[in-house]
Predict the 3D structure of the following.
Amino acid sequence: MQTDPLPEKIEQGTAERRSFLKWMIGVLSAMIGLVMGIPYIRTVINSAPLRKLSYVEVGDINALSIGQPQDLNFQARVTDAFLRQEVTRSVWAIKHSPDEVTIFSPICTHLGCHFKWNPQTRHFECPCHGSVWTIDGKVIGGPAPRPLDTLPHKIENGKIYVEWERFQVGISEKVRV
């Protein structure tokens, strides 16, 4: 007696269809996982602590007086994960000669308060815990563990450009955050 080949073909077609569906489900699952993982990957990459800094124009060197610290405010674009915003930042600039300037971060090295220049005493003073620095950034009083933090800068066509960065506070070494 002859067996009917039709049930074998049906079983074989069903098996091929099942393996195809399994393969398609695997591919679709991988694609969905990749699409949903992109924001996480972008956040990890964008929040890397040692990312490239960029120079921002903070002012005109000719507007500064020699030997007089000046608080310069500027706008900077900040990207944190998916948030991009303009923030106002400041630096302390001290002009030493027509083409030489020192740029200090305005953040106290003790606990992160913003210090000010006192023209009567000719010192930088922190209002939070009483740290005091000379005009060249050396600590002369208070709990500050290190001198004022200088920022990388350059002068091009009479304009001052600064790379804004933050440093850990409360430690004796200058460590970028």
Notes: Residues 6-46 form the longest helix (41 residues). The first strand starts at residue 55 and ends at 60.
